[in-house]
Amino acid sequence: MPMTDFMVKFFWRLKKMTLMSVLSFALALFMLVAVWSLIEIQLESKKKEIIES
Predict the structure, then answer these.
(1) In the chain, what is the straight-line distance between the N-terminal and C-terminal CA atoms, in Å?
(2) How do residues 32-52 score in pLDDT, each as one tens digit?
(3) CA dist list (Å): 20 to 4, 7, 15, 16, 25
């Protein structure tokens, strides 16, 4: 049973450390998606302008 106690402590410490990294990773991913969709929207509007002109 000491092994499971060690595992619990290890995972708790890992969770405490990774919570911030997971949050920052999720935030970075969200920013990337937002920037990508903005670029895509601008490209689409440019294509429409080219087609209309």
Answers:
(1) 75
(2) 999 999 999 999 999 888 888
(3) 25, 20, 9, 8, 8
The amino acid occupying position 17 is M
- Between CA 11 and CA 13 the distance in angstroms is 5
With tokens 């999720």, the residue in question is 26
- How many angstroms separate the CA atoms of 17 and 10, rounded? 11
Which residue's structure tokens are 């410490």? 13
Q: What is the distance, to the nearest Å, from the Cα of residue 52 to the centroid of all Cα atoms in its chain?
A: 37
Residues in the chain: 53
Q: Give the residue ranges of DSSP H helices in the chain.
A: 2-52
pTM comes to: 0.53
